[in-house]
Amino acid sequence: MFKLSSEIVLSTKGIVKEFPGVVALKGVDFDLRQSEIHSVVGQNGAGKSTLVKILSGVYTPTRGEIFVRGVRVRIRNVRDAKKLGITLVHQEATLVPNLSVAENIALALYGVRGTVFARAKEKELLELARNYLELVKLRIDPRSKVRDLGVGERQLVQIARAIAENADIICLDEPTSPLTSMEAKVLFEVMEELRKKGKSMVFITHRVEEVFQIANRVTVLRDGVKVFTEDVSKTSPYEVIKHMLGKELEEFYPPRVEAKSLSRVSPRLRVVSLTTASNGKGVKLEGVSFDVYPGEILGVVGLLGSGKTELGKALVGAQRVVSGEIYVNGVKATIKSPVDALKLGIFYIPEDRRREGLVTQLTISDNIVLPKVFKTSSMSLIRQAQVERSIAGRWIKSLRIVPSDPSFKVANLSGGNQQKVVIAKSLETGAKILILDEPTFGIDIGTKVEIRKLIRSLASEGYSIVLLTSDVDEALALSDRILVIASGRVTNVMENRNLSREILISMLGGQVG
Amino acid sequence: MVSTPRNLREILGAVTKYELGGPLLALALLVAASSALSPRFLEPYNQRILLLQTAPLALIALGESMIILMGSIDLSPGSTMALAGVVSAAAFRVYGFQLHASLAIGALVGLAVGAVNGLLVTKARIPSFVATLASLVAGRGLVLVLTEGQPIVGLSQYRVLTIELVGVPVMVWLFILFGAINYVLLKRTSVGLLTYAIGGNEEAVRYSGVRVDIVKLVNFSLAGGYYAIAGLMMNARLEVAYPWTGWGYELDAIASCVLGGIMLSGGVGNPLGPVVGAYMLTLLTNVLILLGVNPYLQWVVKGVVLVTAAVALTRGVRYVK
Ligand SMILES: Nc1ncnc2c1ncn2[C@@H]1O[C@H](COP(=O)(O)OP(=O)(O)OP(=O)(O)O)[C@@H](O)[C@H]1O
Ligand SMILES: [Mg+2]
């Protein structure tokens, strides 16, 4: 056998990163070869983001050494990293929402070349931006404002920006989390092209199958320790997952039990011909109708920008509805705000957790009790620390939030653990109609299973669940019925019986463009 | 020795880890420096005056801090305190109300102005800066109309606020009491949690199905009440209700919050910070007077201190809004 001896462009030795109360990395040796896509996987809080943040100068390590092409370097800040050709595409979008796509890309260039004042001519700027957008196969007007883009589109713009910065080493922190499998495929083509051009990439993901689609090598982190590194061709998804969890995964999707008690007599939520105002961004819903019964999970499947999020927001009065009716338990409802919605027992769990789901300066416990703090407080006013702690403690345990300290600040949680806090908060409200917008985005396999089990058990307890998802497998595994949505219209409604994955995907794909 | 600076750094780090650590450290340094500079500084007589001067400022700073913690701003404290003081004085002197009733009327005026601010922000959806700027201007106008620009004299009975109780003036007890109330309100009640949460991320709180507007209304009203008490304190201290009382105090209130570690971006800061900040600001003026510094230069010094505090506060903060 012969081995490809490729040059190591980046390596770390014994990287330790301590945060107050948490050791995120406990002596990690990591290396990245020339023209390699090196995947890093691990459970929520394993230290993946911390590792790439250290490589890209966002954090400085507590101890340990970093080498770039064999030379020991000190990376004290993001600028240092960029000078060494290392760029990070963040897990959370880091674009300026009020600037255009072209301006955002230009900002990155200014940053590198240090020519803030040399404002390029508008035309050149647009031309430049168009080239980079071409590279990530994003067909949008470079003049459109970033705030009007969907989560996935923003992700692609971020990658375009990294390419524009001319980085040799690109760290991608969960770039595919907000993407559908089709969009991910596009991204992979882009990554493969970049690889052929000699770029090296660190690629973090929670989808193990992606590792085997695109990566050359894979490293598994668990609790801040590197437990496994291997060429992808010499390992299997099974082995990788085993290393991630530290044990074997019995069942990936909980088997869907046909709810015996699901009697569709009177719908708990009836939506009739809902139409929203077009507000310039995203799509507007047109004549969306459906029913959800007690104990039912309705999967609403659609691609990015199909109107799922608009639907979720319209149901809780966070998106202006121009016509159509909503009935709750047969009674016509007027929902002007999430307050009205919660009174009727409807709660929306947003997809954009940092912006719409969490108050990151507050603790885990504060965030979980937030919606019902008037109820947990005596005389609605005096907070009961004991009660709040026990509520938080229960969720921390059942959703396995790490660290398990209820007074830990949410800002310092890993991405997946933040999502769990949002879910805990919404379940704690006691709302019987839950609208879950991409509930398992950025959540590791082990916990995904937990959350899916939880959703199922909620349904069997009689909750009505509207599951907004772009993950076809998730929809198939959980839903009783599936509603396909495209460009703000319902294109298909069907019982989830003997539905094949391929057919469902083709339904989504069929409506594109 | 190599270890000394590191230890100092560690100590500083440990102190500033607590929200109130930074302001208290600054206060300690300021007190030490002041007593070194002026031997009269620590004399009980001077300290008594200092605390009497701090009391009204502490109250408006406490009120202001509730608004700032919510991520809003309130420019009306100065005018509100004047209006409350003047209306109360007029009730007492002109309309012959009992002292207690007059004090209560003053407090109600403050609550009402605050409620108007709150309604402008929540119902009319005007940004707090603009809404309270309107109150600042209109409130002062109202005061001048009511008094025709003349002070209302003869308020010697308001002395109930300056007499001593267990060796400490009632006014000082009051600000200690309201400091404690504010602490409990912000740290131990549902409204307090929501105040911090709204300042941290209003969007998320709205999606949580919480009545954000009511919390805002409550806070603006309570803050108005605090300003009114400050106005009554001024009446007591001067035994006159001046129409120009509290002129420019909104800036001192905001400065006290900043000195006390309340982040202007909202959601971060200890409820007792504003009291510490108000004391520091008053102390600074006091010492500058003791040292005979040119009064105009005092403003410059205050400005420099404010900037220093702001720099210290935002160290380690990545972005400032
Ligand atoms: N700024 C911080 N302060 C304190 N603790 C932190 C901070 N950032 C991360 N941590 C902690 O470090 C650990 C590793 O976090 P990290 O974000 O690297 O996880 P991750 O592997 O990226 O997880 P996820 O899959 O959820 O994104 C977690 O326990 C987290 O709570
Ligand atoms: Mg992460």
Describe this structure in words.
The complex is a heterodimer of chains A (513) and B (321). Chain A has three domains: 8-250, Rossmann fold (3-Layer(aba) Sandwich), CATH 3.40.50; 269-345 and 431-507, P-loop containing nucleotide triphosphate hydrolases (Rossmann fold, 3-Layer(aba) Sandwich); 361-422, no CATH class. Chain A is α/β, with parallel strands linked by helices. In chain A, the strands form four sheets. In chain A, strands 6-7-8-3-9-10 form a six-stranded mixed beta sheet, with helices on both faces. Chain A has a six-stranded mixed beta sheet with strand order 16-17-18-13-19-20, sandwiched between helices. In chain A, strands 2-1-4-5 form a four-stranded antiparallel beta sheet, covered by helices on one side. Chain A has 18 helices and 20 strands. Chain A is 35% helix and 24% strand. Chain A starts with 7 loop residues before the first strand and ends with a helix. With 321 residues, chain B is mainly α. Chain B has a single domain, classed as ABC transporter involved in vitamin B12 uptake, BtuC. Chain B is 72% helix and 1% strand. Chain B contains twelve helices and two strands. Chain B has helices at 3-17, 21-37, 44-69, 77-93, 99-122, 128-147, 170-188, 190-207, 212-238, 249-259, 273-290, 295-314; strands spanning 164-165, 168-169. In chain B, helix 4 (77-93) packs across helix 9. The termini of chain B are far apart. Residues 316-321 of chain B have low confidence and may be disordered. The chains are: A alpha/beta (513), B mainly alpha (321). Chains A and B meet through helix 10, helix 11 and helix 13 of A and helix 8 of B. Magnesium ion binds at residues 48-49, 91, 173, 414-415 of chain A.
